[in-house]
Amino acid sequence: ERAGVRGSFLHLATGLPFQNTRAMPQRNHNDFSRRLRREQTPEEKDLWKALRSRRFAGFKFRRQHEVAPYFLDFYCPLAKLAVELDGFGHGLLDQLEHDAARDAFLAAKGIESMRFWNHQWNENREGCLLEIWAALTRRVPAVESAKLDTESTRFVPPKERDIIRSRRGPQ
Question: Helix H segments across the chain?
Fold first, then answer.
């Protein structure tokens, strides 16, 4: 067996062996995730403080979760919800196209993506958290939400009457 070749592979349609089949380079995804977690932006660190350890209304979140070939800033497996904090680079044309393709890929897997700009988080944290909470409650049936441990949560969802009042403006 030649160096870099993994056995013989046959083309499904023709039955002939593939030529020059090389082993794909393996990237240690756990190390890459760890590096992304170590190198978080200040905004990501602040959002993680709100989401970690089931503090956010009892929902479990993971950070830098891999859905190959992508890594999600924050991911709630119960709701299949990805939350992304984007900086300046995500406003560039190439990155906008990449993000759109990424969101389509995730949508095909049933994962909803929420994106906030860093400045939105810095200026209106409670508003961002409220939007995340609304997406979670929209995606998780009430029966499942009722099973969550909310004893040690730091984010207390607003009462429905308060949400309705705030939409109408102060009274």
Answer: 29-38, 42-51, 93-108, 118-123, 125-139, 142-146, 160-168
Q: Which residues contact 153 (CB under 8 A, 6 or more apart)?
A: 54, 55, 56, 57, 58
Higher pLDDT, 69 or 21: 69
Distance CA 64, CA 52 (A): 12
Q: In terms of C-beta density within 10 A (0-12 exposed, 13-18 middle, 19 or more buried), how is residue 47 classed?
A: buried
Amino acid at 41: T
Mean pLDDT over residues 130-138, rounded?
91
C-alpha–C-alpha distance, residues 110 and 79, integer Å: 10
16 or 127, which is more confident: 127
Across the range 63-70, mean pLDDT stands at: 89
Query: In whole angstroms, what is the distance from residue 56 CA to residue 129 CA?
Result: 9
Residue 6's pLDDT is 44
Element (H, E) at 65: strand 62-67
